[in-house]
């Protein structure tokens, strides 16, 4: 790609096209005094088909690869910073890099259409130098929409200062099943809370001149809490439960973009679901922005859902159904989509409508007039002291006190010695879709800074994850090829599952660590009908090995020195099979692994325990000894989760629960601090500890925040935005379910949660009184005000989150047993009392009737005010005439 260096006048003379009747050298779309719609149409009629296509294609990328032709422009790029710079210098370098790329498109493409630089910004710009705030689930736990708006505005300031004009955030999907690995990215399970938080975030971002992109439209978590599983729900369920946060994001938050989900809804992939994208989003809700796919989702109809014969037809059906921009993960992936355009598969009217939405956004952002940013501003704003202070405030407000037996917390500052145990105390984990942070304070550092290093001692314990085995590395494998020994194993692949005949592919595999989820092992091999054999030599490292085996989907045999070691030649499920072996250091053995697959999604790994330190018991003993000689123990424990990392089991990983039980037996008081973005079961240890704090992923100031909470500088007041179950068998479990046909309980377990939605304790006590509903009767279109008084009757100042729930006592269609309608987070000094007022109107009282119309029905509504969904302090009634 040659960078053209001429002036705008020469550029326009050579490449520009003057509109009919226009005498000025400047085309109409460059006239900032013209109405935006006129500018859009002027530019649109000048564009070639290729230029239109590239305005509907977005990828992570840059201009570094000379084989990538960007001469036609592009919608936008996710531009990764390069170089060793850190902190403000990294932000400046990132801005300079985006400027340089933006300058190319503005100055050196035919029409000079600027790009939209986009990035992730769920809880901070995900780049070096960006401030990291608490993960979204932690922000939701603040129950403080004003604070979330402040955080979003700060994120947008940092993003815009770099030249980033679109954030692929927030996630307003509902966490309807806490097994979902992406629960951490959400605002919880409740439609009202997710809507309120989403609107606060989106409004602040959009007002800052950055496009917000609520995602993933719609219902991204399926049965079993599995990510992007197919959604088979009724139109009523969509309208009542899944739509509200997105509808609020569009109609109240005024989001400029929406991202579609990977999954299908009612059998149709969302990226090409006309009812959702055109019918609901654009027609019913009046969405004027542009719809983008999730990364590589448009082709999912071909390779995942199997509803399209080709990517080209998938593109046609996606755009004609209402998708505007195709988001892919690399430049070369454009080819089948361009083929669909070039072959005329997509009507001109559809293309022009989508391009118009993109161009309108670029004009509204002012990119044609001001495409570049001041890199010094990026260096100033990213990691600004005010943003650090805001990150600390958000972390402090997000912490939830789940248990405080015997008022063990807060700890006294004069405490003799504190044992801090757990690797999460030193890792400073920030959660998914996060940058590295600028000044991350670990929990251990926060506690040491609070009480002094001399009184704080640390032990890692067994760790969050205790590895029992690893993949056999490449340097331990070899085979003979043409009379010489070469690294790796010989892999012979067959196009049937019986290892018979001649292999269709023979190659060297450096190691056996394969997961063929969406592909076959090689060309000419069916996706779901094959077998493979790996042969060669295994060389044992210093230290030897005592366990050897296979991890993967069933259908494998393992031979060592000609002896059948593992025989699992059947297709049942997936797992791992390791057997005891005595492999001496530096010994050499022949090895053969055979595998077959008859359904697809094959997975196979050759594993052993060589090089895996088996000292977790020693680390456990060290931690217990430290606990025994300390005044108090703070165990910091965590979970693993994330995108495509759903959890079947909700307990703490590895040997962490065993650690808590062992430490508690010492008699030293134990406080557990939980790090994670979703629910955790606690049956094996909760009754053995004094205090439990839910920290979520608290952002870069989390260590300071948890130390302040532990030692009473702050009074925790976060609330649970999700329900914590007693056990996984209760799931899905949400508080706002509709009445059951019989009962809630199980034969062997209660149907009630471990901790309910909205739950959170305090170091002080609040008293509720004087509920008043005025007027007590209203017409369907009118509103009433609910008032109550809340007093801090304890000895400490603190925040209380006052929650308003409503139940329709007699409705034509079953309604939730209770539904959150508003919250107020208030601060009270000891002895202070405050009146809290809520307004209830048609939006809060409406239901979807049997004709699928939103109406307010006459009748009695129960008004409930309390400290959680199960801690109702006051109850009254409102009548609709």
Features:
single chain; 881 residues; alpha/beta; 8-stranded antiparallel β-sheet; 6-stranded mixed β-sheet; 21 helices; 39 strands; 25% helix; globular
What would your notes on this structure say?
This protein has 881 residues and is α/β, with parallel strands linked by helices. The chain is 25% helix and 24% strand. The protein is built from 21 helices and 39 strands. A hairpin with a 2-residue loop joins strand 7 and strand 8. Helix 4 packs antiparallel against helix 14. The chain is globular and about 90 Å long. The N terminus is likely disordered.
Please outline what is shown here.
Helix content is 25%, strand content 24%.
Summarize the SSE layout with pairings:
Blueprint: H1 8-15, H2 36-44, H3 49-54, E1 57-60, E2 76-78, H4 87-108, E3 117-119, H5 136-141, H6 145-162, E4 164-167, H7 191-207, E5 211-212, H8 235-251, E6 257-259, E7 264-265, E8 268-269, H9 274-284, E9 290-292, H10 300-303, H11 311-321, E10 326-327, H12 335-342, H13 348-364, H14 375-381, H15 385-398, E11 400-404, E12 418-421, H16 424-427, H17 443-451, E13 456-459, E14 470-471, E15 477-481, E16 484-487, E17 489-494, E18 505-509, E19 513-516, E20 530-539, E21 545-553, E22 556-560, E23 563-568, E24 574-583, E25 588-597, E26 602-608, H18 616-628, E27 632-638, H19 656-664, E28 670-675, E29 691-694, H20 702-710, E30 766-774, E31 777-778, E32 784-792, E33 798-808, E34 819-828, E35 833-840, H21 842-845, E36 847-848, E37 854-855, E38 859-868, E39 871-880
Parallel strand pairs: 1-2, 1-10, 3-4, 4-5, 6-9, 12-13, 12-27, 27-28, 28-29, 31-39
Antiparallel strand pairs: 7-8, 11-29, 14-26, 15-16, 15-20, 17-18, 17-20, 19-26, 20-25, 21-24, 21-26, 22-23, 22-25, 30-32, 32-35, 33-34, 33-38, 36-37, 38-39
